[in-house]
Amino acid sequence: MVSPGKVEIGQGIVTALAQIAADELDIDTGRVQMVRASTTRSPNEGVTSGSLSIQQSGRALRYACAEIRQIFLSAASDRLGVGIDALDISDGIISGPGNVRTSYWELAGEVSLDRDATPGATPKSSTQRTVAGNSVQRLDIPDKVFARPRFIHDQALSGMLHGRVLRPELSAAKLVDLSEGGTRAIAGLVAIVRDGNFVGVVSETEDGAEAAMKALRKAATWSAGETLPDENRLAEWLKAQPAEPAAIDKKTAPQAGEKKRTIRRQYTRPYLAHASIGPSCAMAKWTGDRVHVWTHSQGVYFLRADLALVLKLPVENITVEHMEGAGCYGHNAADDVALDAVLLAKAAAGRPVRVQWSRQDELSHAPFGAAMAIEIEANLDAQGEIVDWRHSIWSNGHTARPGRAAQPALLAATELANPHPRYIATNPPQANGGGADRNSIPLYDFPSWQIECHRLLTMPIRTSALRTLGAQGNVFAIESFIDELASERGEDPIAFRLRHLRDSRAQDVIRSVAKRANWKPDKRAGIGYGVGFARYKNTGAYCAVIAEVEGAEDISVKRLTLAVDVGEAINPDGVINQIEGGAIQATSWVLKERVRFDSQHITSNTWTAYPILRFSEVPDVEVELIRWPDSEPLGAGEAAHGPVTAAIANAVFDALGVRVRDLPITRDSLIAAMESAL
Amino acid sequence: MPSIGFRLNGVETEVDADPDRSLLDILRGPLHMTGPHFGCGANECGACNVIVGNHAVAACDTPLWSVADKDITTIEGLGSAERPHPLQRAFIAEQALQCGYCVSGILMSAAALLRRNPSPTGEDVKGALDRNLCRCGSHNRMVRAVLRAAAEMAAPQ
Ligand code: FES
Ligand code: FES
Questions:
Q1: Element containing residue A623 per DSSP (H, E)
Q2: In terms of pLDDT, which residue wins out, A301 or A81?
Q3: C-alpha B46 – ligand 2 centre gap (Å)
Q4: What is the mean pLDDT of chain A?
Q5: What pLDDT, on the 0 to 100 scale, is given for residue A467?
Q6: Which of A33, A168, A325, A621 has the greatest CB tally within 10 Å of its CB?
Q7: Helix, strand, coil proportions of chain B in percent (round to 5)?
């Protein structure tokens, strides 16, 4: 039985961890029982994010299991009177010379694992492993294909009630007046809960809760909301806000090259929605002054810490248990809805309450990935070689996850009669991969550079962690600019990159992708090819992409060819699945996505107003995995987004001769780019 | 309230409910069928798709009255671990999903397609699934899985 602190978010982590345990213990993967994370029994492994689960949790598990194997071997050696070295384990059966045998299960009574792991256990080497490194079928997939209830949305606790929270359509509006009359008459109503601007209903049935919400919406009067920025002038707005500057990195050349000219470009990316297919959902149940919460949050301990702050309860009174949700792609409303459920359940007299957000709420009240403005300036010498490089970012912070600060980050906390201030998103330090500045330090060997980041201190539009944090924006900017400089010199963009990279694994992925995509295919009218490369966080997986696009007014991405190096791949097919998914999601971001708003509302709160890529628009995706079984396993979930974004933009330039520097690449942004190039 | 009858996964079913309520509401509520998922409630994502007659429809946008006397198939009626539908086998073989929240609706759209067109092309499959959203980017694997299932069903037994 393995009890990891990391949670399944559709990335296959549970299977990969089971593979690691099976390998070290020499048992069949099917024997490994994986336990859902909960604050009552799991190690505190923080949050499941940043493509770190295999790196962190996987390594811990590998060492723990190696030690357990050793403990059992020595117990077996005592019982059988055979030296440890003469023993073999096969699917849990421990045998030695002369047919002596015992097993994990036989010895289980004698061996206590209730102890701390000690340093010194030696896990198997890559050549001794038989399970990790092979593609195995994910353990969670049959349930999902046969629709056995597995998602939190599909669980029913006994005596469960249904809750809904009424949120204003205007951003951060205050509840001025609420007449409850009509709502009280709705069948099944259990309670109307109001605490300041937080207002919700509890009902015996889900449709009763929906009906009560509708009535309540009519009965509520809200104040004017907060003013939102102009969605068409985001860069100007971002640069004009009060901000906290940070020097991210500086490299000084031993000898300054001679500057002949300077080129400066600005790139932007819009706010992006996580846009999970399943709106956020949670359940909560009070027993006296103790509360049990079921959640699809990525960090059960962090959520518990924030709930404790809001409820003013010791953490011991709160149990937070994970259940799978739909894919979240970062910090969405999973944590917010958990607090909603906790607050509504207070009025449920000890019965559990399930709260489900609407599609509208999910697309307008959940945190978004932050908009970014990025300026890059390069000094060039007479040959057009880069002698100095400056990269500046303006953006809100890229994380406002719960549990990190003395103040809660949950939505309802700002709505209560005694409100907590809105938590302004921050950036993790560079040592943890950075936030807005993630991947802003070039991997290329430019002689000198200066990287700086301006974190906004205002946050009219709520932002938090979205897959890759700032890396997608920064890689888009760097790789677009590089492409532009190479093309000005008349140099092949792949040759240009290879010439500026010292890391052989980086060169390998670029060479591999070039070979696989037959770089560079002959020019055909209306078709373009572009390349993008990054090493995620500069310490994670390497990924190079070649995109093929087609079009004039509307761009379609025909094919993405990727080469990826994730070090040791525990479940190679799982890695490829993650890379394909990341590549397709990034294509969706690039071609279609942008959170829309007017001066007071988020207006992109339906799938029609916030379209994502459809089956007919999805490119062919081909992934080559470069295997390094002896090196650290590196997460795969976020490696493709930045390189894919840049490759598409560069392919659009190749096809049309137009540089689109403001995402998304739509008919409108193409026209704007053509006009500004005139 | 009038009672409305239909065949649900082959079983004669009667419900007493407001005929204007959505089929999704009835399935997930009183009938305790959690296979069809709630995604938007507005016929925009396909997470709730079921088959009525031979067509995949969004259960969230199908009023109860409109299915009186009809044949309804949900994912629960498609197959089981013991007797999987070829599509379910193929989705496992191709590992054709990530989070899987969209998958029950996608399987129903695909099953409806195969009822109407047993040998679809890749383009046909994409067309039939175009109203189903998947945020995880599992599209290409899903298309491969549908084609694999079609081939398996066409192969002489
Ligand atoms: S929930 Fe029915 S189409 Fe989205
Ligand atoms: S597999 Fe997650 S939404 Fe489709």
A1: strand A620-626
A2: A301
A3: 12
A4: 93
A5: 96
A6: A325
A7: 40, 15, 45
In three-state secondary structure terms, A221 is strand
Residue ranges of domains in chain A: 13-137, 152-224+275-365, 372-398+434-677
Position A50 scores a pLDDT of: 65
Q: What's the topology of domain A13-137?
A: Aldehyde Oxidoreductase; domain 4 (3.30.365)
Would you mind telling me the total number of residues written for chain B in this entry?
157
d(CA B94, CA A140): 14
Evaluate whether B3-77 and B79-154 have a shared fold: no
Whole-structure pTM value:
0.94
* Phi, psi dihedrals of residue A412, rounded to the nearest 5°: -65, -25
SS3 A315: helix
**Cα(B61) to centroid of ligand 1, in Å?**
7
Q: What's residue A397's pLDDT?
A: 98
Cβ neighbour number for residue A44 with a 10 Å cutoff:
12
Q: From the centroid of its chain, how far is CA B7?
A: 15
State the average pLDDT over residues A434-452: 97
- Inter-axis angle of helices A300-311 and A334-345, to 10 degrees? 40
A276–B25 C-beta distance less than 8 A: no
The alpha carbon of residue A585 is apart from the nearest alpha carbon of chain B, in Å, by 6
CATH code for the domain defined by B3-77: 3.10.20.30
Cis-peptide, bond into residue A352, ω within 30° of zero: no
pLDDT at A2 over 90: no
Calpha distance A612→B132 (Å, rounded): 11
Nearest CA in chain A to B35: A147
What single string gives the DSSP state of each residue in A521-587?
Answer: PPP-TTEEEEEEEEEGGGTS-EEEEEEEEEESSSEEEEEEEEEEE-BS-SSHHHHHHHHHHHHHHHH
Same CATH fold assignment for domains A13-137 and A372-398+434-677: yes
Give the amino acid at A143: D
In this model, does residue A108 exceed pLDDT 90?
Answer: no
Q: Residue ranges of the domains in chain B?
A: 3-77, 79-154
Q: What is the pLDDT of residue A249?
A: 97
Q: Lowest-confidence range among A98-107, A522-531, B144-153?
A: A98-107
CATH hierarchy code of domain A372-398+434-677:
3.30.365.10
**A580/B141 touch (CB, cutoff 8 Å), yes or no:** yes
The 3-state DSSP class for residue A334 equals helix
The answer to whether domain B79-154 has CATH 1.10.150.120 is yes
- Cα separation, B68 vs B145, in Å, equals 33
Sheet holding A542-551, edge to edge: A527-535, A542-551, A555-565, A620-626
Say what the pLDDT of residue A130 is: 81
Joined together, the tokens standing for residue A664 give 């998304």
Contacts with A4 (C-beta within 8 Å, 6 or more apart), sequence order: A13, A14, A17, A34, A35, A37, A42, A43, A45, A57, A61
Interchain pair B140, A580: CB under 8 A: yes
What pLDDT score was predicted for residue A1?
Answer: 76
In which element (H, E) is residue A68 found?
helix A59-80
Interface residue B38 vs chain A (CB under 8 A):
yes
Nearest CA in chain A to B127: A616
Going from the Cα of B58 to the center of ligand 1, the distance in angstroms, rounded, reads: 6
Question: A117: which 2 tokens?
Answer: 């792991």
User: May I ask the CATH architecture of the domain A152-224+275-365?
Assistant: 2-Layer Sandwich (3.30)
Residues with beta carbon inside 6 Å of ligand 1?
B 38-41, 43-48, 58, 60
Average pLDDT over residues B9-28: 96
Q: Quick one: pLDDT at residue A526?
A: 92
Which atom of ligand 1 is least distant from the CA of A607? 4
The per-residue pLDDT for A19 is 84
Q: Read off the pLDDT of residues A276-330 as tens digits, 9 standing for 90 and up.
A: 999 999 999 999 999 999 999 999 999 999 999 999 999 999 999 999 999 999 9
